[in-house]
Amino acid sequence: MAKATTVAHVREILDAVTDPEIPVLTIAGLGILRAVELSDDGSVVVTITPTYSGCPAMSVIVEDIKSALHGAGLDRVEVRTVFTPAWTTDWMTDDAKQKIAAFGIAPPGAVGSIPATILCPQCASTETKTVSEFGSTACKALLVCSECLEPFDYFKAI
Fold it and tell me: Taking the model in full, what pTM does it have?
């Protein structure tokens, strides 16, 4: 059994774990990676918080975390899921927000409401309108751009 020397080393390994629904985002950038603990016996405990309590990607993320750490020689891995405090888009890094915009998803604005103007991630137009409060997943709304006519998802601010 190998043992990571530091929490930073484990976090570096976990930086390769991406969100299966938005593969340009890491779990750290998305803000669902909450804590990493190392025990004297060499076990690793990773704590995550889902974006939504019913997020279907969480089981895949748990398996991806275990696989990444096992692949690095860490045999004793526990992944804990916590629901409080509830995840918020405030936990997303600025880099993650830039990556999802480049991926074609409008990043979240201020927490608490959909901003009056959401920029189209394709052409940066402000001429966009909401088609549906629910997009490809529950955490996104579906919008369309009046300039380039492209539909796109908006990652809801929560």
Answer: 0.86
